[in-house]
From TrEMBL:
<keyword id="KW-0653">Protein transport</keyword>
<keyword id="KW-0175">Coiled coil</keyword>
<keyword id="KW-0813">Transport</keyword>
<comment type="similarity">
    <text>Belongs to the TatB family.</text>
</comment>
<protein>
    <recommendedName>
        <fullName>Sec-independent protein translocase protein TatB</fullName>
    </recommendedName>
</protein>
<comment type="subunit">
    <text>The Tat system comprises two distinct complexes: a TatABC complex, containing multiple copies of TatA, TatB and TatC subunits, and a separate TatA complex, containing only TatA subunits. Substrates initially bind to the TatABC complex, which probably triggers association of the separate TatA complex to form the active translocon.</text>
</comment>
<dbReference type="GO" id="GO:0043953">
    <property type="term" value="P:protein transport by the Tat complex"/>
</dbReference>
<dbReference type="InterPro" id="IPR003369">
    <property type="entry name" value="TatA/B/E"/>
</dbReference>
<dbReference type="Pfam" id="PF02416">
    <property type="entry name" value="TatA_B_E"/>
</dbReference>
<dbReference type="InterPro" id="IPR018448">
    <property type="entry name" value="TatB"/>
</dbReference>
<dbReference type="GO" id="GO:0008320">
    <property type="term" value="F:protein transmembrane transporter activity"/>
</dbReference>
<keyword id="KW-0811">Translocation</keyword>
<keyword id="KW-0812">Transmembrane</keyword>
<keyword id="KW-1133">Transmembrane helix</keyword>
<keyword id="KW-0472">Membrane</keyword>
<dbReference type="GO" id="GO:0033281">
    <property type="term" value="C:TAT protein transport complex"/>
</dbReference>
<comment type="function">
    <text>Part of the twin-arginine translocation (Tat) system that transports large folded proteins containing a characteristic twin-arginine motif in their signal peptide across membranes. Together with TatC, TatB is part of a receptor directly interacting with Tat signal peptides. TatB may form an oligomeric binding site that transiently accommodates folded Tat precursor proteins before their translocation.</text>
</comment>
Amino acid sequence: MIDLGLTKLAVIGVVALVVIGPEKLPKVARMAGTLYGRAQRYLNEVKSEVSREIELEELRNLQKDVQDAAQAIKSDVENSISQNMSEVESAFNDSTPAYESVSFNNVTTEDVSRKAREFRRKKLVRNSAIPNWYKQRHGGKLHVTSGAARVARFRPRGPTTSSFF
């Protein structure tokens, strides 16, 4: 703004005292101060509005760039999906079913149930919280018994032959 030093302000004050007079000088100084304050506020408002408009324009440009990039990514993804789907459909239509050549004639239900039991038993032993070397060293159980097997093991067998009467 205007560069006013102390000497320039003193000269302006003396000239104003001589021209305006001592009676009206305080009112004029007060009015000049309020006008100066209004001018500063107006300039600050204009500066902030201009900076806001610049920021909004930058944000609009950024939003446009992001939307363009998102649209490009979306189209790329849609194109790749459609290409993959067409490849899968063509491969599905062109190929012969692979399940026809597999035969399950020699597999029995006993084999399947035996393998399932063995798998569950190994899984229970494998997922145990105590390691096998500790069980062997301290005489713990090395095999896991199911709940039904424990009930069958501890259930009394048949009726007793002794009478109570």
